[in-house]
Amino acid sequence: MKIELKRITVKELFDGYADRGEEGVVGYGGSLNIRPPYQREFVYKDAQRDEVIKTILKGYPLNIMYWAVNEDGTYELLDGQQRTVSICKYLNNEFSINHFYYHALPDDIRAAIDDYELHIYLCSGEESEKLDWFEIVNIAGEKLTQQELRNSVYTGSWLADAKRWFSKRDCPAYQIANRYINGSAERQDYLETAIKWAVGDSDAGIREYMSARKNDPDANELWTHFDNVIKWIDAKFNYRKEMKGLDWGRFYAEYNESIRLVSRDQLEGRVAELMLDEEVTSKKGIYEYILSEDERHLNLRAFSDAQKREMYETQDGICKHCNERFALNQMEGDHITPWVDGGKTDIVNGQMLCKDCNRRKGAQ
């Protein structure tokens, strides 16, 4: 790849600036594609965005930016999108600094901003080289998420439409699912979650899914599946904060049919009961327990070391099942009446068993 240095002013960068939404963002007389397909959305927080402008106002240097040179002489922004968009949004009077919008600045300060010099590395090479370089130069910046990196590889009509559903601030996916999903739509967490809900967690599976659909005209199939999962959650449960971040896509795939005839009232009654159960230490695990009946998801309360010591001394170190004597570290606390039958984690419901006996009992 050939790399050469170019110097331009802020005024030249802003010339022809336009944010056309899904059609892209351009600047530099319309010849710079500020948001090519492999770029992330604008993710700077207000403080980060403001700091870019304050740096310019102080005359301090910004980090070097990287543009890729296209065969027709136009450019694509490889690195520096967040700084570039911050600059253009300020000159477009979309936010103020120290209560001053760009158009209201004194003439000398506005001129200083216009004439501020940016250093750009122009990179010429093949498409694969551009994407490789894009990943390299971003290592030093705000680290790309795995889904942002995948987006850089599988650009096409499908991804463009998928971003409309899953990757914008206040996008449709955010509007119906923000209570259930962790992360940020702009950082591609919602898109990644939607694909995982469709095909599973493996990186290879996600890449295969995106590759097979790269040139599809739309992402309606993915949206429909995502929407069905959310409608299923809303139909079966009342919202609680413990539901956020659970693997609802997998729950839907594995348990939708098995609980199809179970009413919302039945499920909610069980949830409410378990939420109040002091023996249940993982409240988030309640949902998968209700769906699977696997107690491991509840992380049921175990006997404390003090309780085990007291039971051990009371039993004189003798296992209640095999009647052999063992050291304390060779034994485990056991519920005489199991939790599922109403047993509690207290001394009167406890006994010490050797590890072999306890495991045999647990397997029964």
Describe this protein's structure.
The protein is α+β, with helices and mostly antiparallel strands. It folds into 4 domains: 2-144, no CATH class; 157-250, no CATH class; 257-298, no CATH class; 305-363, Orthogonal Bundle (DNA Binding (I), subunit A), CATH 1.10.30. Helix content is 44%, strand content 12%. It has 16 helices and 9 strands. The strands form 2 sheets. The chain has a 7-stranded mixed beta sheet. β3 (25-27) and β4 form a beta hairpin. It is elongated, with a radius of gyration of 29 Å. The chain starts with a strand and ends with a helix. The model has no long low-confidence stretch (mean pLDDT 91).
Could you outline the blueprint of secondary structure elements for this entry?
Layout: E1 2-9, H1 10-14, E2 18-19, E3 25-27, E4 32-33, H2 46-58, E5 65-69, E6 75-79, H3 81-91, H4 107-115, E7 117-124, H5 127-138, H6 146-153, H7 157-166, H8 172-177, H9 189-199, H10 203-213, H11 220-236, H12 248-255, H13 264-275, H14 286-292, H15 305-314, E8 331-335, E9 350-354, H16 355-363
Parallel strand pairs: 4-6, 5-7
Antiparallel strand pairs: 1-7, 2-3, 3-4, 5-6, 8-9
